[in-house]
Amino acid sequence: MSNVAIVTGGTRGIGKAISKKLKDDGFTVAAIYGGNAEAAKACEEELGISAYQCDVSDVEACESVVAKIEADHGGVGVLVNNAGITRDGAFHKMSADQWKAVISTNLDSAFNMTRPVINGMRDRSFGRIINVSSINGQKGQFGQTNYSAAKAGLIGFTRALAQETAKKGITVNALAPGYIATDMTSGMKQEVLDSIVAGIPVGRMGTPEEMAHMVAFLASKDSGFITGAVLTANGGQYIAA
Ligand SMILES: NC(=O)c1ccc[n+]([C@@H]2O[C@H](COP(=O)([O-])OP(=O)(O)OC[C@H]3O[C@@H](n4cnc5c(N)ncnc54)[C@H](OP(=O)(O)O)[C@@H]3O)[C@@H](O)[C@H]2O)c1
User: Could you list the active site residues?
Assistant: First the structure.
């Protein structure tokens, strides 16, 4: 098996914690970032990993960055499709740009990044693909038709690809985090956050490290019997069937 892991959005927030955990677990980590070069450089220095700039919504850029990572480090064994954005708004006021930005960054990106790594994984008969979905892809969320659609789409992608790749030793799973303390949620109004936390039975938001722990579990070579699963980590806020 290859111990090269790509983490998209791997230099900030949940992705940075995933990069750290996979590095600690012995993987060679290539973290992809969108535009925040300062955070990427700081992450490289702090974690001792490599960072690569790539817009995950751009299919050709993803093909190029995977080729570069494979040339630098070797074939990819683990892909974590984590990069994501929000562009919230009630649907009756949502622009086509808000819709397209979220669908292309959060959902098209899974095709754009997975397609260039899948044949190498098939050839090596090993792979771990982990797609970071969301509680709001499971239950829907007011003001997030775009985000909820993209994150629900990732769950469908996970379940279909898991069936196609199972015989090749490649597992495909999704993680559905609840509300996690990162830059993505720090931009929310305090009263909105307070009302959300009031509805979380464990009484707090989750941490990026808790999400990284679950991704590392799915990435392990010992997790070969788990595929097509959606692991929920939301403090009991939404308990899906
Ligand atoms: N935080 C939560 O409560 C929560 C809950 C459920 C699910 N999630 C999901 O978890 C994932 C990580 O969220 P987070 O809270 O850690 O977000 P974050 O702190 O805002 O970090 C987002 C990361 O994604 C990267 N990114 C964004 N657009 C990109 C693009 N077009 N191309 C490449 N990279 C791009 C960013 O790169 P730059 O640093 O260059 O900007 C950054 O590294 C997302 O998919 C999010 O939807 C988050």
Answer: 147
